[in-house]
Amino acid sequence: MDLSVRIGSLTLKNPLIAASGCFGYGVEYADVVDLSTLGAIVSKGLFLQPREGHPAPRIVETPAGMLNAIGLQGIGARRFVDEKLPELRARGATVIVNVCGTTLDEYVEVSRVVSDAEGVNAIELNISCPNIKEGGIQFGCSLAGTFEVVSAVRKATRLPVIPKLTPNVTDVASFARAAEQAGADAVSLVNTFLAMVIDVETRRPKISNVVGGLSGPAIRPIAVRMVYECRQTVKIPVIGIGGIADARDALEFMIAGANAVQIGTANFVDPFIWPKVLSGIQDYMQRHDIGRVADLVGTLDTRAQDTEWISS
Amino acid sequence: MPIDVAARVIANRPLSSDYNVLALEAPAIASEAAPGQFVMVKPGAGRDPLLRRPFSVFEILRDAGGAPSGISILSKNIGPSTELIYRARLDQTVDCLGPLGRPFTIVDPPTDAWMIAGGVGLAPFATLAQALRARGVRTTLFYGARRAAELFYLDFFRALGVDLALTTEDGSLGERGRIVAPLDRRLASLDRASPVMLYACGPEGMLAATAKSAMKHGRACQVSVERIMGCGLGGCYSCVVPVRSDAGGFHHVRSCISGPVLAADQIVWS
């Protein structure tokens, strides 16, 4: 059974990737997960400088999901390279660094810092964080900005470049196309949906940043639709993200057109989720006589629905 | 290394209309847990409610031979997840991940121990009191609640030889008011040469007042902070606490892995 998938020049041993912001720097999970068994891990978003992020409360639970505004607390790209990367490398992890910037120059500089380090396998460009005022989403919410930042980073690194797209736009597929035209090796989507929760007794927002990003099973059907739209629009690989909590969810994204998937919020609920999802995918492949998981990608059958499902 | 157990509910004892003690079969967690550590509990199966909730390990349960067989948690019903904890049925299972976090540092004689608890903040002190008394440490529990009916487990602490100082907001038991008032008086009258370690857990305002009183009187204080947590393992960065930086200013630490027990004088209290 071949579980490997290709993302540009990068081959992952399986399609399961730990999502940025949901897995710390990876080292936090080394005691509970064999990091080498994951397709890849994506680091927390990294700027050039350390950031302290927003005050608590930073999350609140929502129906089948959660809202967060962490504010991209992070140790900065150089400390990541010096302090975290060696352990990740020693543990055999495939590492994708989530690169942030407040300016075009910062994206390029952070990309250079991590590209020079041994043990980084790809760059995910964070142009979609909804929770900070400066940086990221002003690039990700404009087609020209997306093209510009992807082009600039493309020129600065030999690593695969994977822009992470925001769902907070009218037509996400057009952003996937802009990224592809700028030389992206793949796109990952979706980041969180901008949302808010209010305590009606106190009339105060439930998180300190007032608004935040919604994730978890609640958003999955929207994310699947967006992955499907991007699959129809671009040739480059698509990495599906949004509320995956078991093997069926992961398979749904792959059938819609995702070459690989990221798991985020569900890892908070069950840090032992990885082997469970992987074995669920293997069971499915066995039942459906599929030898290569890559053969599943984009196999959605949209032939005209006949009447059998109505009568059954 | 934390363990995830599908723990069977072996008892669910309501203490009041909103507090309960839930006993879970989890020998592997019980045999590892140290006072001050916590577990992440998923109160219901399925995806709504989605997240686990952090609870201090309240008691270590033991079998007839004295071997650790499980843990209990002290819960206050404040929302959908704690409602499920309150209504949990015998023999159902709840996912329980732990033990997690940094425990209390336990003192030895001649240092005395003063534990300061507010409301559900009593939770880490049952196991701490046992550990302290086993070492022969003179131990006092300062314990405040809204009313007499919400001061729990007093006989448990008395049986351990713990001295009690109690307050209620309505004056129905002990001194009327907040628990920091008698604490501050006792600290003021304590001989400078008498060593004491303070341990505090409770609402943020109580912790801040306790920390201020401890610092004013030059006493060390360990606080167990409560934050909304996503994962309990350091992955989500939800549960941060601002602590003083060497260079001045502050930085955020994750209370799940750098805490929940932190030195009171390191925290930037708002």
Written overview of the protein:
The complex is a heterodimer of chains A (312) and B (270). By secondary structure, chain A is α/β, with parallel strands linked by helices. Chain A has one domain (5-53, 71-195, 217-297): TIM Barrel, CATH 3.20.20.70. Helix content of chain A is 33%, strand content 18%. Chain A has ten helices and 16 strands. An eight-stranded parallel sheet of chain A has the order 9-8-7-4-3-16-15-10. A four-stranded antiparallel sheet of chain A has the order 5-6-14-11, with no helix packed on it. In chain A, helix 2 (104-115) links the parallel strand 7 and strand 8 (122-126). In chain A, helix 7 packs across helix 9. The two termini of chain A are 34 Å apart. The mean pLDDT of chain A is 94. Chain B has two domains: 3-100, Elongation Factor Tu (Ef-tu), domain 3; 112-225, Rossmann fold (3-Layer(aba) Sandwich), CATH 3.40.50.80. Chain B is built from six helices and 16 strands. Chain B is globular. The longest helix of chain B is centred in the C-terminal third of the chain and has 13 residues, at 204-216. Chain B has 270 residues and is of the alpha/beta class. Chain B has helices at 27-30, 80-86, 125-134, 154-159, 180-189, 204-216; strands at residues 3-14, 19-25, 38-42, 53-56, 59-62, 68-76, 93-100, 112-118, 139-145, 163-168, 175-176, 196-201, 221-224, 240-244, 250-254, 261-263. The chains are: A alpha/beta (312), B alpha/beta (270).
